[in-house]
Amino acid sequence: MHYYPTFFSQLxxxxxxxxxxxxxxxxxxxxxxxxxxxxxxxxxxxxxAIRHQVERFNASQTEVEVLALPLPESAYRTSVDRQAQRExxxxxxxxxxxxxxxxVWQGYLKPLNQYLPKPLLDDLLPxxxxxxxxxxxxxxxxxxxxxxxxALWGNKRLLEKVDARIPESVADAWTLEEFENILTKxxxxxxxxxxxxxxxxxxxxWYVSAFAPIFQSFGADxxxxxxxxxxxxxxxLFADDxxxxxxxxxxxxxxxxxxxxxxxxxxxxRAALSLSSHxxxxxxxxxxxxxxxxxxxxxxxxxxxTSSGGWSWGITRDSxxxxxxxxxxxxxxxxxxxxxxxxxxHGVPGTLSAVNASPLYQQxxxxxxxxxxxxxxxxxxxxxxxxxxxxxxxxxAIEQIMLGDDAMxxxxxxxxxxxxxxxxxxxxxxxxxx
Length: 434
Hints:
The protein has helices spanning 7-25, 44-60, 73-85, 100-105, 118-123, 126-132, 156-161, 176-188, 205-217, 231-234, 237-251, 281-288, 322-332, 335-345, 352-357, 368-376, 387-402, 407-424, and strands at residues 33-39, 64-70, 92-95, 146-147, 150-155, 195-196, 273-277, 292-295, 306-307, 312-315, 348-349, 378-379. It is of the alpha/beta class. β1 (33-39), α2 (44-60) and β2 (64-70) form a beta-alpha-beta unit. It is globular, with a radius of gyration of 22 Å.
């Protein structure tokens, strides 16, 4: 998700990054090993939280000092590629998980299995392991201190007005028929747009997180995970079922239009359900209080699916001190540090021990359902180097569909773009033989 749509807000964001540089490049003479680190994040609060983690690590011991440099997302990928060509990558990178597959395929990262302690590896959420594991060699190349949660938020007061059953677990999720019946009743009860899908975020990774599970529930996908062909999955019969479903929601006027903004669920009685992420918990809870319900992803088709994927920590191939870099990653993956970051962005803690220590995510916590989903129905991003292209193409197709353009034409164009990119890269060996 992007929160900086205008020139002036993007300028503000860039200046915020620049404000970090001077204090974080100052060195401490006592450290025997100095590590360079690059990072970026979705919000300014998260940038501050990561900076504080670096400061706490540096203060916790005298052998290693991490010199952290924040980069705007717009410059991150190009900076990594440029420094990789010069063999001067930083020791540690913290980056959007959407970049992971490409970075690993390009050889930018070292496997973590030999550097991180086994108790930590065993403690990782299964979804974190799945995101960070390269299918070519089965090695773990990245870990995430928080994972994501995508589900439905509901307004109990409005749902109870139409006698809607409110599921409390994955096993109790709504079927497509029940979900659509509830939307019909809500609209008849006077809600102009009963469902908010955060279309105001615009095309980006959010569109993958929100809409890919709908396609995957029907048996479609962004790309075949065997033949690595996009067209067969994005435009096949199963995709037809997903498209027909989305078209029905649009034709019935159930979805809050993107230009109506971000407050239709939690500020005004114009929506009773919101398909959104863990990041919306604070504003939803403040606005709705005891009327707020977290509801599992519905079972739209034969399969029950939600998305997953968090921001990633990795050690680069150019690091001369990978064991020291691993000590820093072990530090930020500690229970205390995971909970510190989760308290800022409300992401799902990336280890089982941190989940059990989190008031929000432990059994009985307000957000425990997200953990249940990640442990049972989560489908990770396709781990293929074409993923950045795939994500952009799919999000663009969804944007066209939501604007009323022909869905299959949009999906066909997206699949052609992806398949052409794969062909132009000779199948991205060794994926061409997997």
